Amino acid sequence: MQVIIRFSGPLRALAGRSELALPLADGATLRDLLHALRPALPAAFDEQVVRPLETGAGSLALVLVNRVHRRGPAALDHPLADGDVVAFVPPMAGG
Prior knowledge:
There is one protein chain. A five-stranded mixed beta sheet has the order 2-1-5-3-4. Helix content is about 30%, strand content about 25%. It is built from three helices and five strands, in the order βαβααβββ. It is an alpha+beta fold. The chain has one domain (about 1-90): Beta-grasp domain (Ubiquitin-like (UB roll), Roll), CATH 3.10.20.
């Protein structure tokens, strides 16, 4: 299957691109996608976004799958399907 990954705002610069199509095995989860991103993106993205998401530490990104925010420990086990769009977006604060 193939998943589309999009990067917004400052995460676009950190990833060095705005979008990436990534092939994954059928039955892959969000955790599998994070592992597959490592060789495809700069080390800084791994350090500042991927690792904190995996460990539950503060990350520079929120993760949306098909525009639905996936958060919490169970989020990494969310199954992905062919054609899903995974977006990494910076957290926003308003007032």
